[in-house]
């Protein structure tokens, strides 16, 4: 009798286990889809570093000069003798309701980052950002060495602290490649090719290296325009190896790439990695596009009241795309653990901060026009570094 009862219980237990396993397997895929692995990110109640104003302070001096070995020549405005550099760097960013020290302490920061690595992924505006970061950090370790391993385009290693900070160039973030056209007839000598973008495939420049980094800073934005990909050489978007039909416009393509890359990051990059998305860096072409003699020979920041006229898309101005791109970025990273580095507004003021005509090469302006896109270094990206390092510090210290 007793053995009959226990075998009945045994059978029920087995049935129950099987059932539980079955239900578990049902909810498992639910937990591993990118949407639901997006954890809601409790941000510590920090002040908002991104709203505020620029205040002139004659005692404000950059931490580095033209001798920093990490400079890229065309942004080295001191060496290229850009006018007004003293003035440009006398402005400091003061957030509205809180204070941020006007410089990071590179010693303290690198000590905090000991045995850790910071990676930047994106276009030349992230390269502009990292050059500033490398030059600032080098103040604490002048044994810093150039570092270009793992496919990095540019980077530095800080031996005193065993910290690597590097940039991986991937202008669209997704994989893209030139695909030559196929002649439709024997007289068709130059069939049009296209740039094929695989929206669901991250560029190989960064996809394998994310686990090396403890902090990642992504961006894309400046290549999503018809000046980079004109009608004769358009972007054509592919999903799962097939062209998307109907074909997407360039901004629609950007939206799909952002969604796919963000999903990839949520799926593949470890949760403990600090992830940032740097929002669009605004351009300041005045009076025309870069190839229409657009210029930025300003000697002080814009007034707040001027910003909408320059940047609001409803005004159809030359520089309207930063805010448009930002809307797509915000939508894509919503409800993820990727934190927005919203440097757009503070940078919008700084029409005075670009290399303009001081590019370090004689014919550069005649060929490329003024550079009202990248930033002089030292300059505005030093403030981005300040804010990024404050956010990293508060995250790491709260752990
Ligand atoms: C700053 O504080 C004021 C008053 O409390 C508030 O109205 C404003 O929204 C705050 N600004 C930011 C950027 O948090
Ligand atoms: C340097 O940091 C890496 C992690 O980036 C770690 O694997 C390595 O052990 C560290 N080296 C030393 C000498 O501490
Ligand atoms: C730009 O300036 C040059 C020299 O002043 C002039 O020849 C050219 O027509 C201008 N281009 C445009 C698009 O305005």
TrEMBL record:
Cited Pfam families: PC-Esterase, PMR5N
Any Gene Ontology CC annotation: membrane
Transmembrane intervals: 9-31
InterPro entries to which the protein is assigned, alphabetical: TBL (IPR029962), TBL_C (IPR026057), TBL_N (IPR025846)
Record's subcellular location: Membrane
One Gene Ontology molecular-function label: O-acetyltransferase activity
Entry annotated with the keyword Transport: no
Keyword Transmembrane: yes
Trichome birefringence-like C-terminal domain: residues covered: 104-390
Membrane topology (UniProt): Single-pass membrane protein
Keyword set, alphabetical order: Membrane, Signal-anchor, Transmembrane, Transmembrane helix
Family statement drawn from the similarity comment of this UniProt entry: Belongs to the PC-esterase family. TBL subfamily.
Record protein name field: Uncharacterized protein
Organism for this UniProt entry: Aquilegia coerulea (Rocky mountain columbine)
């Amino acid at each position: 009798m007793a053995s009959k009862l226990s075998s009945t219980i045994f059978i029920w237990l087995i049935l129950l286990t099987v059932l539980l396993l079955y239900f578990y397997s049902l909810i498992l895929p639910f937990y591993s889809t990118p949407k639901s692995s997006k954890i809601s990110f409790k941000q510590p109640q920090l002040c908002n570093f991104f709203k505020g104003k620029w205040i002139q302070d004659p005692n404000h001096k950059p931490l580095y000069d033209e001798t920093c070995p990490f400079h890229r020549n065309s942004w080295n405005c001191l060496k290229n003798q850009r006018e007004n550099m003293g003035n440009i760097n006398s402005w400091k960013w003061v957030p509205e309701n809180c204070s941020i020290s006007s410089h990071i302490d590179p010693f303290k920061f690198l000590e905090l980052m000991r045995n850790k690595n910071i990676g930047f992924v994106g276009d030349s505006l992230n390269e502009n950002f990292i050059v500033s970061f490398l030059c600032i950090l080098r103040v604490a370790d002048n044994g810093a060495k150039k570092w270009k391993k793992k496919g990095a385009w540019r980077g530095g290693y800080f031996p005193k602290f065993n910290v690597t900070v590097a940039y991986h160039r991937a202008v669209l973030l997704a994989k893209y490649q030139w695909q030559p056209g196929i002649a439709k007839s024997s007289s068709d000598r130059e069939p049009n090719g296209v740039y094929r973008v695989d929206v669901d495939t991250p560029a190989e420049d960064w996809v394998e290296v994310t686990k090396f980094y403890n902090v990642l800073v992504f961006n894309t934005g400046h290549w999503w325009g018809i000046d980079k990909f004109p009608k004769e050489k358009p972007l054509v978007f592919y999903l799962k190896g097939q062209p998307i039909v109907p074909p997407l416009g360039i901004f629609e393509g950007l939206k799909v790439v952002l969604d796919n890359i963000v999903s990839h990051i949520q799926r593949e990059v470890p949760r403990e990695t600090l992830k940032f998305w740097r929002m669009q860096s605004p351009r300041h072409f005045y009076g025309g596009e870069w190839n229409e003699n657009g210029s930025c020979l300003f000697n002080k920041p814009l007034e707040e009241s001027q910003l909408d006229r320059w940047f609001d898309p409803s005004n159809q101005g030359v520089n309207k795309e930063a805010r448009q791109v930002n809307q797509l970025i915000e939508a894509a990273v919503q409800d993820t653990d990727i934190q927005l580095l919203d440097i757009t507004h503070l940078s919008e003021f700084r029409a005075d901060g670009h290399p303009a005509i001081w590019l370090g090469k004689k014919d550069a302006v005649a060929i490329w026009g003024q550079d009202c896109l990248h930033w002089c270094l030292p300059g505005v990206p030093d403030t981005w570094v300040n804010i990024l390092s404050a956010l990293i510090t508060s995250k790491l210290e709260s752990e």
